Amino acid sequence: MKGIHIGRWFRNVSIAKKLYFTVGIMALLIAFELGALIFSINTLSSVRAYVNGEGLWSKAQKDAMYQLLKYGRSRDEADYLEFKEFMKVPMGDHKALVELSKQKPDLQAAREGLIAGRNHPDDVEGMIKLFRRFHSEDHIHRAILAWNAADSLIPEFFVIGNKLHQEINATNPSPERINAILEEIDPLNDKITPFEDRFSATLGEGSRWLEKYILKILFIIALTVELTGLGLAIVVSRSIQKGLNEILHSAQAVTLGNLSSRAKAFSNDEIGILANDFNKMAAELERMTDVIQEANITLERKVQQRTSELERKNKELEQFAYVASHDLQEPLRTTTGFVEALRKQYKGMLDEHADRYLDYIAQSSDRMKILIKDLLDYSRIGREKQFVPVNCNVMLAEVLSDLDTVIGESQAAIKVGELPVVNAFPTELKLLFQNLISNSIKFRRRGVAPLISIDVQSRNGYWKFSVQDNGIGIDPSHHDRIFIIFQRLHNRSDYEGSGIGLAHCKKIVELHGGEIWVESTPGKGSTFFFTIAEHPVHTEEEKTNAARQVMNL
């Protein structure tokens, strides 16, 4: 009867209490299992530490033997000191072995000995406990016997070392005597090696036995934990499965996009409360989704309007620049013609101030011609409708031919790599290279002939071109500013120009769906990079996707 009452009580209590009871039982069993596991891990770790310690012991012994042989050949006192230093390892372990073999060992002395044997300080306590707890266990006992046997031979190394040291430091050292002493080392080493191997093999055998034994215990404990947990889980799950399944089905429906799905609440317990809260969350999610969708529609509409407005203004600005530049040419030609006529007819007849003023007017007119030409070029960029295949090497040869005079005057050396055939607007691409090369020549260091290198690499569907020079360089703070129209970093008295050239370059590259940037160190030169798609880009959507890819190059 009591069993029936307990079962009824367990079914009727709240889910929280059921979980507390289940977790409590599981926690006790797991704590017991963890205790056994920690003990097992510590024991195996200590066995590992002894195996590692044997490796340190063996290595130090072999190194000491090597240093002793080396000392016999070199007769260098440093080698003998190295021999003694290496022998500190087996001597430290000897100290620990002697102490731990006592009925009442000095544990502090044992710790010091193991640390002197180069064992890790964190392993020392476990090694001491393993020795004291399991010294009678067959595997550990046989390992200790092998340790004792090897340890008993260590003093003989000191005997050989002392004899060798005395002979070498004698007034008339005998080579024959030294060789005879050295010949004693190998036989002694051959005696020790089997004990070292036996120690490691015995501990390895013991470790494998212990692992199997521990696995059996852990398996039994784990099986008990699993069966107990499974039984309790079955009992608890039957009381809450119906409500959870309902919530799960509704959650899956919401995940698939049916935000109107709601879970039925079959009770007023925690599962019922959870179902009601889920329904509230789904309702709020549905409301917020509607709000976000409305906001997205509004935002997309505004973006489209703004984009259309910007495109319209850009077209108007380009048209204005074209018309203004075109209309300025005629009065400028008239002004230039009159100035030239005045200079020819009245040169030398007026005072020197008048001649200088006429020169100023002529120079200003020339600068205005260049500016108007640049503005017209800027407004014409992109008027070609179709990409065509362009052989960059042939096109670049034309550019260098056009710049032949300035190249010769500056004594510039231009190195051109093997360039590809690209799909591009030929006029714009030619202007792009012409501007970059002209800038490299213009902004050269005084007294240094320009050295320009033009190359290309293929990266992720794009041609990545580079134009490198050894000029004056550009301060990093101006790397973005130089691509803005009419931006100049120098006075006209230092370097001529309108400040439009790099803006031309930026517009041309963007027209091809690429990016342009500069890497430069002041006083050492600059490298301009730009990208052009290996395949033509036509639509606005394609250009947008292409620009995103370029940003990852």
From TrEMBL:
Pfam families named among the record's database cross-references: HAMP (PF00672), HATPase_c (PF02518), HisKA (PF00512)
Spans traversing the lipid bilayer: 20-41
Localization: Membrane
One cellular component term from this protein's GO annotations in UniProt: membrane
Reaction it catalyzes: ATP + protein L-histidine = ADP + protein N-phospho-L-histidine
Keyword Amino-acid biosynthesis among UniProt keywords: no
HAMP domain span: 238-290
Coiled-coil regions listed in the entry: 285-320
Domain Histidine kinase: 323-536
Alphabetical list of CDD domains matching this protein: HAMP, HisKA
Example GO molecular function: phosphorelay sensor kinase activity
Enzyme Commission number(s) of this protein: 2.7.13.3
PROSITE patterns named among the record's database cross-references: HAMP (PS50885), HIS_KIN (PS50109)
Highest taxon of source: Bacteria
Keywords recorded for this protein, A-Z: Coiled coil, Kinase, Membrane, Phosphoprotein, Transferase, Transmembrane, Transmembrane helix
Protein name: histidine kinase
Organism: Paraflavitalea soli
